[in-house]
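pasting for the record
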Amino acid sequence: MTTAWITAFIDVPASRHAVASTFWAGVTGSSLSRSRGANGEFSTIVPPDGDPYLRVQRLGSGTAGVHLDLHAPDRDFAPTRSPGGLPFCWNEGEPGTRPLPRIWAGGQTSLVDQVCIDVPPGLWESECAFWAESTGWELRDGSRPEFRSLTRPSEIPLRVLLQRLDDSEGPVRAHLDIATSDRAAETDRHRGLGARVESTRQNWTVLRDPAGSLYCITDRDPYTGVL
């Protein structure tokens, strides 16, 4: 069954839930829905156009991170894990409209448009095969030897990138990537919202949000998703 829509959940500890929700609403230029769930643990980041694809979840325990929901028609809700232990959920859902990049006061455009799945070397082949089969999308080589990507349909809001880590220890995990037309200006905007720069690379900058999660701002085109 081919994935019709993807939702990324930003999972945050209860003590940092409010600040993380405000931060990601600011990053995306979106509003926050009213809380829902048995304990009010879920909220949706509602974009100014298109359909929502980002949500915030307050954790009862555990550390900050990101997990995915893969949506398809007639799919029952079922939480599960990838071969390397990354949580995700199957869920019912129909195709939607992908939101457009935002244009900011500094003149740059940006969009949260990618989930990067970080994989230790020993799990690399099994994770790549698993996500290709689960989404129904073609797996292809990335821009660097340590990257592979899945070919998403144009209306899907999130690309899926797999990154082979140098470190062989630890579980599979995931982070969000942001495409922007001006990385320096976008990084300054995020710092003003409360992010901290961790490192700067040739084509991306690694930051940490106020809840402690790592994410990246990249030089990819916000409209096409490529460098």
